[in-house]
Write a structure and sequence with these properties.
Elements lengths: L10 H14 L3 H13 L23 H12 L11
């Protein structure tokens, strides 16, 4: 990828990037890339990202009846207690 130059980085942000780089013992470049990955929700490459399959057996198993029962059960906890919000 072609190099990117950041200009006019606010002092507070520059200090935070520097602080994180020092704490993690990584370069400023790596610290900025890590922050960008985190902000985009893409931290870690597919090789290092954890993939869990412990709930796979539930995927696609819900019926309309299951969903209706869940919504019925949740309706009680979704009511706002007006006395608490005055």
């Amino acid at each position: 990828m072609k190099p990117v130059t950041l200009r006019n980085v606010p002092k507070e942000i520059a200090k935070e990037i520097e602080r994180r780089a020092q704490i993690q013992r990584i370069s400023m470049n790596r610290a900025v890339i890590t922050l960008l990955e985190d902000a985009m929700g893409s931290a870690g490459s597919p090789k290092t990202r954890a993939v869990h399959h412990d709930l796979d057996h539930l995927s696609g198993k819900w019926t309309k009846s299951n969903a209706a029962q869940l919504h019925k059960n949740l309706s009680a906890v979704r009511k706002v207690d007006k006395d608490l919000w005055q």
